[in-house]
Write a structure and sequence with these properties.
295 residues, globular, six-stranded mixed β-sheet, 8 helices, 24% strand
């Protein structure tokens, strides 16, 4: 056989392998972007006056699960939560008609839980919409007004005391520098206190903090932290976890699941959608249900 035949054959084999890998990634990502799992966590505290079940939704990014998100709505209702918490990035910060439609879907999702107590925290995409109005117009205002019109509560460095459970539910909205890629930023607990105020030690405090990277700072300020942002690390490996964070660091420490630090717990959602590059490999969309029991 001539030497060029061996070269072409090797190239064809490589091309075939690459094609198979690309098809595999596309198929698995399509499946996982549309597959919804429910992860349940059980906690307890002497501060809790009455058992409380929380449905925690995060990082939907305007995606849908079933017609008009009916699959997601049914999954939430099946768990019969006492409160529903949306942890930010339920929409993606884009301009144009497609984004306006995504805002409408997010508001409709909030409104579908009108018989429940619904709270909405701020993620980096909502914050970008608020901050850069020259790019996104009044999209943030439409979202905020829609949330209010749906009888839900938007928490922007604000809190709500749920007396029935003795829970302080506190939103945390952080500056853009804490989301930017390519730089190492430290957050101090004093910054969290500056944004949210002093906690009441005899209340069970839940902090909605979209970016889990700063758990060290959050942990002294809350009994429970609810985060998302990393989308489960995009690609998940058995026994290793997620591959990449939203700031493009490899194998992030807090990629999804439950964590414990300084007596504080943090539940990190793997998210309900994706954006820009819609990849989720071995990483289905996730609805988190948290049961907090009275001791």
């Amino acid at each position: 056989m001539p030497e060029w035949y061996d070269i072409i054959t090797d190239m064809e084999i490589i091309a075939l392998i690459l094609t198979i890998l690309i098809v595999f990634v596309i198929v698995i990502s399509a499946i996982d972007n549309n597959r919804l799992i429910v992860s349940r966590y059980s906690l307890s505290s002497e501060k809790i006056k009455k058992d409380c079940t929380i449905a925690f939704l995060s990082d939907l990014h305007g995606n849908t699960h079933g017609n008009d998100n009916q699959k997601l709505i049914d999954a939430v209702n099946a768990c019969n939560p006492d409160i529903i918490v949306m942890g930010g990035d339920m929409v993606t910060s884009r301009a144009g008609e497609a984004h306006e439609a995504a805002i409408k879907r997010a508001v409709e999702l909030v409104a579908s839980f009108a018989d429940k107590k619904v709270f909405y925290g701020i993620g980096n995409h909502e914050y970008r919409m608020y901050l850069y109005r020259e790019d996104f117009g009044d999209n943030f205002d439409k979202l905020a007004e829609g949330i209010k019109g749906a009888k839900a509560i938007l928490l922007r460095n604000e809190g709500k005391y749920l007396e029935e459970f003795n829970i302080d539910l506190q939103g945390l909205e952080i500056e853009r520098k804490y989301y930017k890629r390519g730089s190492k930023v430290i957050m101090e607990p004093s910054y969290v206190r500056e944004m949210t105020g002093e906690r009441k030690q005899d209340h069970y405090r839940i902090l909605l903090a979209h970016n889990p990277e700063f758990y060290d700072a959050y942990s002294s300020e809350a009994d429970l932290v609810l985060s998302g942002h990393f989308h489960g690390g995009i690609v998940r490996f058995p026994f290793i976890g997620g591959m990449v964070s939203a700031r493009l660091s490899l194998f992030p420490k807090y990629d999804g699941g439950i964590y414990d630090l300084n007596g504080s717990k943090m539940v990190v959602s793997k998210g309900l959608g994706s954006h820009t590059l819609p990849l989720r490999i071995f990483n289905p969309c996730e609805l988190c249900i948290i049961d907090i029991k009275k001791v």
